[in-house]
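new request in #modeling-help
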Amino acid sequence: MANDQNTVTLTIDGQEVSIPRGTTILQAAQRLGRDVPHYCYHPGLSSPAQCRLCLVEVEGAPKPMPSCVTQVADGQVVHTQSELALDMRRGVLEFYLVNHPLDCPICDMSGECKLQDYVHVEGRPHGRSREPKRVFGRDDFGGDVFYYGDRCVMCTRCVRFMTEVERDSRLTVVERGNRSVIDTFFDEGLDGTEWSGNIVDLCPVGALVSKDFLYKARAWDLTHTASICPSCSQGCNIELHTRDNRVQRLKPRENLEVNAFWMCDHGRLNYEWINRGDRLEAPLVRTAGSGEADTRAMGWKEALGVLLERADAAGTQPVRAVASPFMSNEDMAALRALVESLGGGEVVYRSVRAAEESVLEGLPTLARRKERAPNGRGAELIGFSRVGNDDGTGGLDDVARHDGIVLVLGDGLADQDAEFGASAALYVYLGTHGSPAAGHADFVLPVTTFAEQEGTFTNLDGRVQRFWPALRAPGAARPAWLVLGALLAERSGTEAPRSAAEVFAGLAQGSPAFAGLSYDDLGTRGATVNQPVSLPGD
Amino acid sequence: MAYPYVSDREVRILSKHFGDPDQRRLEHARARGRYQALARAFEMGPDAVIEEVKASGLRGRGGAGFPTGLKWSFMPKKPTRPHYLCCNADESEPGTFKDRELMRWDPHQLIEGCLIAAYAIRAKHIYIYCRGEFFETTQILARAVEEAYEAGLIGEDILGSGVDIDVTIHVGAGAYICGEETGLMNSLEGRRGQPRIKPPFPAAVSAFGMPTTVNNVETLSAIPHIVEHGGAWYREYGTEKSPGTKLFCVSGHVNRPGNYELPLGFPLMELIDDVCGGVRDGHTLKAVIPGGSSVPILAADECEGVSLDYEGVQAAGSMLGCASVIVMDETTDIVKQVRRMVQFYAHESCGQCTPCREGTEWMTRILRRIEEGRGTEDDLDTLLDMSRHMTGTTICVLSDSAGAPVVSSIRKFRDEYLALIRRGERVGAA
Amino acid sequence: MSDARGEGAEIPFRNPGWAGNTGEFDLTEEQVRGEDYVGRRPLEGGHPSGAASYPYMLEEKHPEAPLFEGAHQERFLKILSRYPDKRAALLPTLGLAQEVRGHVSPETMQRVAELLELSPAYVRGVATFYTMYNKAPVGRYLIQVCTNISCSLCGADDVMAAFLRYTDTETGETSEDGNFTVVEAECLAACGFPTCVQINSRYFENVTPADVPKIIERLKAEASGGA
């Protein structure tokens, strides 16, 4: 092994390794797949080395060393599992349990708790303390956070997050010694902060819990699915945690190039819409005539058959298509392709754009972005133009009165009236929910949300990121790319795409921006599109 | 000389003017030689001063006993950033009361020592961190600093040497842990006074992120004498590894408690029997804590032949620490006093490190329970095991200090614990 | 609980507060306390080097007083000038605020936070770390009795009990006449003069239970006579 200036060679648990200089023993052990128990260390925060849990044995050192701050050195011999190391950590864990209440049966953290995990593996089977435990009770910190002081292990990750990352020192340690507890400035609480929800993720135990999630579901009942936050164009990598086919909560997923370890409070709590029950569940077809009574639910094959007939009957007509920036790249690519096959026309999208973004001061590349939708950039790259106002309304007068073909994908048309599309030769509405502006639609086709399909979004920096399905679609709802792809295939006599990857591959072939990318390339971290991304309206 | 009692066994260097209220006044102090060493230091140059202090073998008098000259030599010789000197006047170790006497009787000695030290380490600003409770003492020091400024002994171009040094008196607010070097730094910076991890070391990054040296009041008070008479002179007192004199703070069950300045290596029993007039009349010696509450307790039979220097006390199984000798006679209730000491540590723990935060409080509760007659023999094993896990596992040594009286008292006075546990009987009343 | 100097020691004059009268020294109270040397410190801080070192445990307290005005404002600015950043002035500023108002309330913390451009939560964290910042109002005289080991060996518990009896209070409570709050203190660094008691800014040394009623009388006299 080359031993240049920048790496050192050391032995960890009998294994000789080369590690870059400046790495800590804890990080080196993590590279080898060993998690040395720790609390106060977190890669996104400073390292105070105060929890004293990460102690390891380093030969030649006079006492056990905190591995989160001790740097690797040439010739170092480290034992993370020796008698001494285990004994010291066992001792520290016992100290943690002296005052920690046996709340597991009523604590949200149970099942994903670092105190449970570590004590189970390395702790004493019985604690020896017979003294009454100190009691702090539950404190409402404001925002989405409850603090159970009894459970707190005083790792101060929450305090340091607010000070170092959100840069709004709302939390502090109050008192000292065994009387220490975390608190805010009296009633000031966390109200008005925008990123404080992250302290719930950071808390290794159940001291900080989400009010929204309180008593909702047990950690071990939840299924975790990798996804992308849909609430703005930052594209924070997240996980959807689901149970009973409902999203129970969102959690950030680590991606150092997008959101590091964080997500904003708004995005975190904005998931209830995914669980809305009033979904379109079957294709609805308006038979001859224009009253609602002539609307019939049909199976897909039949419905698409009728649609193709009507399209042929309408002949070559100019198309007006409206997409929602909540649809995936694949969905919108399929729509665009269909529009082209129908003879071309105008493709537009609308989105809400706030006046300001909310930057996370400790990580300025991360912000809650002005555009409050996940795939506006994707829409633009695929050729859609933005219309309408910054509050998401308007811009569709032309489409509303159009007498050719009108295609609506995902836009709920909440601001449009019942006469929308009344003059259209053919009006197809694809959406997740019904709309009062779909009264004149010839076809109302149920599609899936991002949570129910595989796909990609493109964030404001042009980063294309994959998401995976976490929920079963209701009824006969299907991904829009599947529906539109089937239509296109029938019209052009080609094979319909059978996967989102296929659709994406087609997009990559046809678009210079996406050229060269594939699902394999994107993986779980994403990759950037080819051209510099600076478009009007930035 | 010692205050309030004088002993002819004393060597009166630092304590020469204790009890003399005139010594505070600058013109009196100067007439008796104060600030001459400062002039001499300017002539010698900073490196020569450091060498002289190294040659003297002076060891830090705050408890750690680290060689002072060596500590000063860690500071960069060519400053690229501001250097600071902090004088640690946060005397809070139970049993210790020497710094207060030095500050209130001979403040100019301390000021001169600070100035020489700052000059040697190329510091332009001295912070004297005074314990918050020392209102009256700090006022005396502040007035003395004011006098020195008025006389051009502090500030710009001191004594026409071209050297600029400023002094600020900073006041604490009641926290023993701020006497710890890095805890002091944090407190000085306006933070919670919690100790910091090392590395980084103070000589590289400390107060306000700058190289800093922290020295105890007694250490700095010795400096003018060393500069004036030389390191070799200082070595004429004390022992080879522990040279010089030390202010021994004797308290507890003796006839004449107080500060006594004696050469290091002085026999412990002579200090108690001769200098302090012996254990109080009608009583017999039971135990001695030789270095402040943070060091192991010595039983009476272990005190024979113990010499009061760093090595001698260590050989006897304890530590010299800050040389605060606490004397206990047979009326002492060891369990109660150990509980009181551990309670002190629990109260003063900063709370960062789990073994200390939880352990000191847990120990206090167990000891209270034993004191109240509700203890078990398992409790003693638990206490010993806890001490083991509180030693060497934390950022600072407060946790280790809490363990010292517990471990030593259980080993040496086990009967007293057992009397309470088995029969609910207290041994001793004090 | 016996006199550390042994029974029957000849002491010319016993008045607890200073240990100057052992027969080997003959000092007045002013000389021991240094009052004759220090004199009356100017309210605006005197020389900036010592602006932070003031007696901030005054008998007179003004919980509503502004922070800061007049001479106190001058002193505050002198304090600020001694540190490279505002945060470092926090402890002396809290001390000055307590000198003016008598204790550190949430409003005081908020105001100090504004003055030093720190967050109020941060100031709360620092203020609650240190023992000497009173979080609630205290009596005219805050009596702190050291009960740590050296004083404990020499009867500090009896002295504490005596103070509670003669002020008619519980530990930490303020007496009905608003004059006295009695608490236990940790080592005050006067171990050679047991028991040491700190009352506001003054140290009273060599206090025995018999001295307590006399001390209380003295304080009451100072309170009504105007100190």
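bot summary: The two ends of chain C are 32 Å apart (CA to CA).
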